[in-house]
Task: inverse folding
């Protein structure tokens, strides 16, 4: 009885739409079909087969893989590193730094994009100005495909550190002090404590952060949408942005639904693999 409202909301706004979208992925639904349902035809696996031969979809898949491989380890590394530094600090100033590092994660992406757009601007951006002080040439941060992807990863890492840092901080403060006291009595240095006590006891937090971060980066959307709109030359388009463009700009709802379920299967597969590896590690 108590969980019924939440369950009802979940069914109406999540589960039912998923099944409807799955059915739409087997049709040629477009903007015309919304006005006249009789024009909607069942086309079987045509949308999925079209995805396999779509070079833009292949490029979006590669770009998403690029974002994940580069961005996820960086977010985890910097989040854990900052959490460790803030946890060891006893001064009140470290409380201020917690808020400073957390603020980007709750800042509106539009405001962030405006600021970083000025930073990345080729002609009068801060980054190129600093390079000019070193007598270096201007860098086209958002005008070359590979460099644009790296620039978006830097922005996303900066924005994504805060939440994961808080999770790591909470886990660090939950480690019993007796472990550190015993290590100090045994003459262990800080590196021994870090790699033999702290990091192993953070395995549950690390697993949670890894899973949630990986899922988030597989759905990488806001940064390329706001900063580059998938350009230049579709060099920054992600799978989520590919789905958005086909669904809401080209009005090819059936094709976009098929793409979304391919992304859904990728996320489910990667997540299950992580849980399987985690289970094997626990059993070991």
Result:
């Amino acid at each position: 009885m108590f969980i019924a409202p939440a369950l009802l909301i979940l069914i109406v706004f999540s589960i039912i739409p998923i099944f409807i979208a799955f059915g739409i992925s087997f049709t040629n639904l477009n903007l015309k079909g919304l006005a006249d349902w009789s024009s909607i035809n069942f086309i079987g696996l045509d949308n999925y087969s079209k995805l396999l031969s779509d070079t833009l979809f292949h490029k979006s898949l590669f770009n998403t893989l690029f974002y994940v491989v580069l961005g996820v380890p960086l977010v985890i590394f910097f989040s854990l590193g900052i959490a460790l530094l803030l946890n060891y600090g006893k001064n009140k100033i470290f409380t201020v730094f917690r808020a400073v590092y957390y603020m980007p994660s709750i800042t509106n992406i539009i405001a962030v994009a405006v600021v970083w757009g000025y930073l990345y601007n080729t002609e009068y951006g801060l980054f190129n100005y600093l390079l000019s002080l070193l007598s270096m040439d201007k860098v086209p941060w958002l005008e070359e495909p590979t460099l644009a992807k790296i620039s978006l990863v830097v922005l996303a890492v900066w924005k994504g550190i805060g939440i994961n840092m808080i999770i790591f901080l909470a886990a660090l403060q939950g480690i019993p002090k007796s472990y550190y006291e015993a290590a100090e009595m045994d003459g262990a240095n800080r590196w021994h404590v870090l790699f033999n006590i702290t990091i192993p006891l953070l395995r549950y937090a690390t697993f949670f952060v890894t899973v949630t971060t990986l899922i988030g980066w597989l759905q990488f959307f806001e940064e390329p949408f706001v900063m580059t709109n998938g350009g230049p030359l579709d060099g920054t388009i992600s799978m989520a942005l590919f789905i958005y463009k086909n669904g809401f700009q080209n009005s090819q709802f059936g094709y976009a639904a098929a793409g979304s379920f391919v992304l859904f299967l990728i996320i489910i597969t990667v997540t299950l693999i992580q849980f399987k590896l985690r289970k094997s590690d626990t059993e070991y």
Summary: The CA atoms of residues 53 and 60 lie 13 Å apart. The chain has a mean pLDDT of 88. The chain has 14 helices and no strands. The longest helix spans residues 55-88.
